[in-house]
Amino acid sequence: MGTSLNFSTLDVFTDTPYEGNPLAIVHIPKGTDVNEKQKLKIAKEFNLSETVFLHEAGDASDARRFDIFTIIGEIPFAGHPTIGTLSYITMEAQSTASSIVKLQCKAGLIECHSDPQTKDVEAQVPHNFHLHSNPISSQDYLATQPSLARVLADSTEERKYPVVSFVSGMSYVMIELSSVEHELAAISPSTADIPSKETLIDNGWEQGLIGSYFFVTVGSPSQSVLSIRTRMIEHKIGEDPATGSAACSLACYLAHKDGNAGQTHGYEIEQGVEMGRRSLIRVRVKLDGNRDIKQVFLSGRAVRVMEGKLVV
After folding, report:
1. Of 238, 232, 235, 182, the residue nearest 212 (C-alpha)
2. CA-closest candidate to residue 196, choices 141, 233, 159
3. Alpha carbons 225 and 268: distance in angstroms, whole number
4. Are residues 251 and 285 in contact, defined by beta-carbon separation less than 8 angstroms?
5. Please, which pLDDT band fits residue 60 given cuts at 50, 70 and 90?
6. Residue 172 bridge partners (DSSP)
7. Phi and psi of 72, rounded to 5°?
8. Residue 61 clears pLDDT 70, i.e. is over it
9. CA-closest candidate to residue 87, choices 43, 42, 118
10. What is the Cα–Cα distance from 51 to 291, expressed in whole angstroms?
11. Would you say 9 and 305 are in contact if contact means Cβ atoms under 8 Å apart?
12. Is residue 236 classed as helix, strand or coil in its secondary structure?
């Protein structure tokens, strides 16, 4: 008989069960060794966009280590596992007071704040934002999205879609569209791989995951927050209902491009609507005096859905 491990599933970036982005969290007790190959097998068994392996802290003051796996392999950072893990720790603590929690992932140390009263959690996430030097032409990219290409066929303008990384190994092509009803709705979740993607990432940066993030600006609910509708597609994973790393990448890209130096810019990003799994992601980006990214804060909610045990 193998080792039995507790797990929970949460829906992240929502407070409504069966919406948002599902996440599995597997609890790793002290003294229990689960290797990388075993973690990948467990992630494939759950078959979710990400599975977290949360290691028990050696001391109450220690940062909680969490490893993030897709069905393909381990990744350095992802937004919905971060928010989901923080929400899970807050639920388990059963505290009614706001608290600060430190998490440790491959990308670095993450300082988090939770408010049990509102159920909001926020993480100051590690970042190394980079705008790559080789954008992809709309003609080349739209070969992977024939249905969208047909909708955009009347446009004679050749566009360049920028490629950005939030951390090394997590990159996205940013495709700005003008209509939710016609253009965003025309996207196919089944897509060919991005052509010549090895040429899109600058030297010294890990290629890793390269997704496509489609976005439409839909309004400003306040002077300090911009509302955006998005969809994220990756040819091996398919469509993702909520992608925190992509939302952070987009927020950094827009703040760097259009933001005011020394100010904090807010973004409310709605994703997953077309999948029937509406998600709401909030990002705040603080710029320094040179309009470079100084701090990034990712926030949202999560709700527990399932609990159980697995054997490894």
Report:
1. 232
2. 141
3. 7
4. yes
5. low
6. 164, 211
7. -100, -35
8. no
9. 118
10. 35
11. yes
12. coil
89-123 tens-digit pLDDT: 988 887 666 678 889 988 888 888 888 778 889 99
Q: For residue range 177-211, list pLDDT tens digits in order.
A: 999 999 999 999 988 889 888 899 999 998 888 99
Which tokens hold the place of 84? 């989901």
From residue 262, give the alpha-carbon distance in Å to each of 48, 252, 283, 291. 38, 14, 16, 7
What size, in residues, is the chain?
312
CA atoms 149, 153, 156, 157: torsion sign: negative
Residue tagged 């007790």 (tokens): 29
Three-state SS string over 175-229 comes to: EECCCCCCCHHHCCCCCCCCCCHHHCCCCCCCCCEEEEEEEEEEEEEECCEEEEE
Percentage with pLDDT > 90 across the chain: 70
**HEC states along 64-115?**
EEEEEECCCCEECCCHHHHHHHHHHHHHHHCCCCCEEEEEEECCEEEEEEEE
State the residue for tokens 């490893």: 67
Output the 3-class SS for 121-135: EEEECCCCCEECCCC
Sole residue written with tokens 């603590």: 93
**Whether the Cβ atoms of residue 114 and residue 87 lie closer than 8 Å to each other:** yes
CA 166, CA 19: separation in Å to the nearest integer? 25
